[in-house]
Automatic annotation (TrEMBL):
PROSITE patterns: AA_TRANSFER_CLASS_3 (PS00600). The lineage of its organism: Bacteria, Bacillati, Bacillota, Clostridia, Eubacteriales. It holds the Pfam family Aminotran_3. GO terms for molecular function: transaminase activity. Its cofactor is pyridoxal 5'-phosphate. This is Aspartate aminotransferase family protein. PANTHER family: AMINOTRANSFERASE CLASS III, LEUCINE_METHIONINE RACEMASE.
Amino acid sequence: MNKNIDKCISIVEKDKKIYAQSGKIPYFPLAVKKGHGAIIEDADGNEYIDMLSSAAMLNTGNSHPKIVEAITNQAKDFIHYIYPYVYHEPLVDLAKEIIDITPGNFEKRIIFGLTGSDANDGMIKFARAYTGRSKMISFIGSYHGSTYGAISLSALNLNMRRKIGPLVPGMHHIHYPDCYRCRFGKKQCSCNLECINELEDAFKYYLPPEEVAAVLIEPIAGDAGFIIPPKKYMEKLYSICKENGILFVVDEVQQGFGRTGKWFGIDNFDIEPDMVVLGKSIASGMPMSAIVGRKEIMESLDAPAHTFTGAANPLSCKAAIATLEVIREEKLIDCSKTLGEYMKTRFKDMQERYEIIGDVRGIGMTIGVDLVKDRITKERNTDAAAKICYRSWENGVLVTFISSNVLRIQPPLVISKEQIDKSLDIIEEAIKDYLKGNIPDDVLEFSKGW
Ligand SMILES: Cc1ncc(COP(=O)(O)O)c(C=O)c1O
């Protein structure tokens, strides 16, 4: 590598001595100093094209001038005042806007928090209170957050669940419908939705449906490797929920706010969920989460059952209002669709040339490039993913991997076609370097990933 990263390395060394490493998922030694749009600058002045958007938290890119202006102006008026005790206009303005764009042609209510994890915890409370039932169903491979409720709903990684038990009881996990690695060996044309039998069997043999409060699903399985569920699976799951008085809840923390070429991921399936969990890009990097749900569900808890001193921060509210404006004015939902398709086509083209790419899938600007050791066995190629991400970083692109082998392509929706072309050229060069054996093994000592 011919660039200087001395300052970055010294920051990494300091971090290792003071920060609990249980909170780190390193891919490369990047210390961020600046970020504008789809460009990140490190502490040594090196620039990178961002294909990660801070894990889908920056759909409008970094430090968008309109967002910066909104935050700055609000900071001059007041920075915060505990919302459970008082009221303010930024919140009520934002609440109305979000209620208007979230799916569901029924009366809704909203509540705010600080991070996607707390919103999932809150969702459990509302689902239990409204239904009077305690059990919840979520999916193997899912990540819903790091608080106790959210971690109990998640089933991504044993390290997240080790040593901390007992977790919140009543959480059951079933397989996400994965057409690429179909557990029944089916192709989509021959599929009879065998995967839904797991839920039906659960209801028949060990999980009384009348005790289940909610099913929580991501519209695209995010950290499980960007798996796209078949539409007919979603429809069937929804109808099973309705038949059994079970709430259908979507976690839009990662896929919301234009990322999939629609306002929300679930809009691709024409389903109206009972509750929607929001976070990440809602406020363009400012801390904020929200739960939006049917009025009667959101009014089922008695006050003060779900409050946070720092929630509904007016800076975050103003950033969120500006986020919605930017998404509309810059037609970012259309960009997500058209540039997302363009990226997918380019990766599919690479798939024809490199055996190592087993699958390319995605909607809008959530695209997964599944790296395998063998196209028949589909064995996950973790070393390839780690090395390709590392080499791409060395050459000026921030790309990471999830599910141990899937390149995570989630750039800010403001990225230009030129930036996409440059990034994909660099990623392709990294793939070639990997195949030639030109990326050393010591890279693997740093890169851990999800
Ligand atoms: C789908 C999903 N839900 C919830 C969360 C947790 O959000 P946060 O990290 O903001 O608490 C994440 C984070 O990656 C996520 O991807």
